[in-house]
Amino acid sequence: MSDKAKSEVIKEPSMLKQKEMIASNYERLTSGKEKTVSTFVPGNLNELIMCFDMVNNLPEINAIQNGMRKQSGGMIMDAEKSGHSEDVCTYVKADIGMMGRGNIAPNGKPIPPPDLLLLSYTGCFTFMKWFELLRHEYKCPTVMLHVPYEGDGVITDNMRDYVVKQLKTEVIPAFEKISGVKFDIDRLREYLARSAKAEDDLVWCLEAGKNKPSPIDAYFGGVYYIGPVFSAFRGTQQAVDYYTMLRGEVEQRIKEKRGPITPDGDMNEQKYRLIVEGPPNWTHFREFWKLFYDEGAVVVASTYTKVGGSYDLGFRHDPDRPLESMAEYCLTCYTNRNLPARVDTLVDYVGEYEADGLLINSIKSCNSFSAGQLMMMREVERRTGKPAAFIETDLVDPRYFSHANVKNRLESYFQMIDQKRRSSSAAA
Amino acid sequence: MKGYIGIDLGSTTTKAVVMDETGSVLGRGITNSRSNYDTASQVAKQEAVVDARLALVRRELMDIASLSEDDVVDLVKGLESGFRLEQFIEQLGDLESTCKGNVDATRHKGHEEGLRDALTTLFGRLREDVVGLFAPGAKRKSDFFRDLAGTRYMHFGEEVASETGESFDTLINLYDKSIIEVENRPPAGDMSNKFNRALNRVLEQGNIKADSSQIATAVKAALEVPIDETYVVGTGYGRVRLPFPKEHIRSEILCHGLGAHLMFPKTRTVLDIGGQDTKGIQIDDKGIVVNFQMNDRCAAGTGRYLGYVADEMNMGLHELGPLAMKATKSVRINSTCTVFAGAELRDRLALGEKREDILAGLHRAIILRAMSIISRAGGITDEFTFTGGVAKNEAAVKELEQLVEENYGKVTINIDPDSIYTGALGAAEFARRAVEE
Predict the structure, then answer these.
(1) Which of A52, A342, A381, B275 lies at a CB distance of 3.0 to 4.6 Å from B303, suitable for a disulfide?
(2) For the ranges A409-413, B18-22, B236-240, which has the lowest average pLDDT?
(3) Which residue, A58, A85, A57, A90, is CA-closest to A74?
């Protein structure tokens, strides 16, 4: 095998399709022919945006793309030069830096300034400051969807009604005004029906991690799986088709008792089944993943794949209750849930997915994700009796990824699992 | 006999432990990690085997009825320093020929002859001086060839330079060039020969009560026992450099946990402050790691921090602790950042604070940082063991004892005199278990 062939990343057909989809959205965004709205991934209102013929731009996804393409480091430095401090959310700084460099999309063309900033803040308060900065820059209208924090671990009718009211009185009128398109609830219902279909298949795929061997990697692979449904495709036929295809691939792997496909090919030996909490590191995504599959560690479930909606807990978009279900969607996003609810989820995952333990990737520049994680870790350890470990990286700041440090901790953790297994089998 | 070897390739020192099949430690060896982990691990292993040989010699000598226990101790001590001396002379020879070989590479054309003559004189003096270095009761600041030879070379180099008119700088330059080469070559030569020469030195001194042929026979018997490398386990940052299959590599976190358990079976919490990182480890009653935390993205609060402080103060690393112990108060140093430490240090000195008081504060800062890492790992449970190079530093230990009591009440704090070998000990035990269990 030549070196060139060796270094080629192995991808499944669904991954290639997903890549095409993301690229097509960037084409639409950069074409300048359609009106655009910038919004955030957790609790995004994609179906509603589509009702107004507008295109969805997600600054976090841009930061991720730039992270994976090794562009974010320079952008962050640019942002720091313009006065943003080192410890601030690196998604924000990557976005500010990207703006300074002309907002060039991965296709090499500039993304025009948005026509609207739709600030839906679910669980992350930095979002508010982020769009304040963008508003200052773009001087475009900003509409805010305030999603109450699920502080007591339950969603009350009041909370839902509060969000619905905002949709009716603020968000929809703002969209109508900017787009010039009249809101049509039946159009929304149609999109929501498609969302639910895609969501069913997504959940089926994510739950395939319960198989042994697991046919998926629910963290590294999971990032690809959630792409369409968490971004500009939820509600489209493309998303429905993507998830049908993905489900077919996963079914096939289960049938053949094969593991997930990694950038280096099939992963067959699965020595450790892990639950992972926290976002991945994007700047070193491939080498980060390699640290896992080289050791035979597969992630069977993760919380990161729930940041744009906790579908596996039963939520689906509902065409019969369009605005209500959209409100519930925003409320159930993982980042909007309180710490005990996050602990419960993790404990359930360890049990349901028969995992060997919990691994937390704590993000340096994301306080809303990281606060309380050590407490969560201890609680999960206590309740499951399974070993847990803690690693620390960052979202898109390459300066905060130490390969040696992460490797050291991961290896120690895997050996810790081994040791624990040996001692429990000796005791038995 | 079966020998199980654990090698801990740390960032500053490399340690090795040889263990027999029953789990008792036969020998320990240490060397500086230098730039070459391969050599470092070979040297540390060789040192541990030498130490193991001495242990076997001790066993054999104990069987000689006419020798008291004190005699045996003296004899083994004599044999050891004799062996070190032989080893030192051998390396000195290597250094001399390497220096002379490097003369041609200097920029001082036409001086070659003179430089070689100067080196002959210099090394002659070094050799004369060497016996005293290993005499009974001699105090050495370091056991590493680099440090010992370096200090003496500087001393005699100055003399020789002024006597011969050769440039002192050139002589130093030759040393700097050559020492790396010498260090990166594992000491050659036959171990038995060195032991025998060392034995002759001891016997020549003539104050042994027992029959010297009896002693020689005992030493010979001990030297002939084959020590097999039955299984080797490597740990530490350099572990990936070891030519072992993956099963022979263990993370230092597990090795420190198990090592601490072997030293103190009741230990539940372990703090290891090493050169590059600080680890808080929780272990169960079998020495199995149940949780660990370590410093994240910088070397704040690690041994390196002390190294940096020592450099800033123009002192040796080992002088810091004793000076800090002389403090009458502790100056508050808030930052554990290695770079800020320098700034705070300069600032406090400028304000007229005493060095010892500042140092006490710096030690406290390190331990505060360690306390935070331990609490992230779940706090301190009785018994608590402190390992790693910093455990040798009395000022750090003092601060630790204070802070542990303040935060966790009365807890037994263990520090083994051989704590620096904790990781290697755990690794050796992993090696032993891989075969014996």
Answers:
(1) B275
(2) B236-240
(3) A90
**B163: number of Cβ within 10 Å:** 10
What pLDDT does B142 receive? 72
State the smallest CA–CA distance between residue A314 and chain B in angstroms: 34
pLDDT > 80? residue B109:
no
Find where tokens 């090499």 sit. Answer: A108
Whether residues B289 and A416 touch (CB distance < 8 A) is answered with yes
Cα–Cα distance between A105 and B404 in angstroms, integer? Answer: 54
Output the furthest CA–CA distance in chain A (Å, rounded). Answer: 71
Q: Which of B237, B253, B378 sits opposite A412 (nearest CB)?
A: B253
Segment 394-413 of chain A within 8 Å of chain B by CB: 400, 402, 404-405, 408-409, 411-412
- Residues from chain A that touch B378, judged by Cβ atoms under 8 A, are 378
Q: Which amino acid is at A378?
A: R
Whether B253 and chain A come into contact, CB under 8 Å, resolves to: yes
Instruction: Give the strand order in the sheet containing B228-235.
Output: B25-32, B13-19, B2-9, B228-235
A378 to chain B, any CB pair closer than 8 A? The answer is yes
C-alpha of B286 from chain center? 28
Residue A219's pLDDT is: 98
Query: Which residue shows structure tokens 């030195």?
Result: B201
| B356-to-B194, B321, B327, B329, B340 alpha-carbon distances in Å | 44, 9, 5, 9, 18
Alpha helices in B264-393 (DSSP H): 303-313, 317-324, 338-350, 355-376
Query: Which of A103-112, B123-132, B424-433 has the least mean pLDDT?
Result: B123-132
Query: Does residue B248 sit at the A interface (CB-CB below 8 Å)?
Result: no
Q: What is the pLDDT of residue B35?
A: 66
Around Cβ B284, how many Cβ atoms within 10 Å? Answer: 14
Does pLDDT of A4 surpass 70? no
Query: Most B CBs within 10 Å: which of A358, A375, A416, A424, as the mutation test of the B interface?
Result: A416
**pLDDT surpassing 50 at residue A5:** no
| Tokens of residue B153, six digits | 């070379």
Strand blocks (E) in B10-99: 13-19, 25-32
CA atoms of B292 and B399, how far apart (whole Å): 22
> Residue B330: pLDDT band by 50, 70, 90 thresholds?
confident
Rounded (10°) angle between helices B303-313 and B338-350: 40
Contact A206, A225 (CB under 8 A): yes
Mutate to test the interface with A, among B233, B247, B290, B295 (most CBs of A within 10 A): B290
Give pLDDT, residue A259. Answer: 96
pLDDT digits (tens, 9 = 90+) for B352-404: 999 999 999 989 988 988 998 999 898 999 999 999 888 989 999 999 999 99
Torsion angle (degrees, nearest 10) of CA A8, A12, A13, A16: -50
Range B13-25 average pLDDT: 94
pLDDT level of residue B67 (50, 70, 90 thresholds): confident
> What is the structure's pLDDT at A97?
96
Element holding A342 (H helix, E strand): helix A339-352
The one-letter amino acid at B69: E
Q: Is the pTM of this model over 0.80?
A: yes
Among A58-72, A114-128, B243-257, whose mean pLDDT is lowest?
B243-257
Q: With an 8 Å Cβ cutoff, are B288 and A390 in contact?
A: no
- Write out the DSSP string of A6-55: HHSPP--HHHHHHHHHHHHHHHHHHHSSS-EEE--STT--HHHHHHTT-E
Higher pLDDT, B113 or A111: A111
Q: Is B240 on the interface with A (CB under 8 A)?
A: no
Residue B193's pLDDT is what? 87
Cα pseudo-dihedral A386, A392, A393, A395, rounded to 10: 70
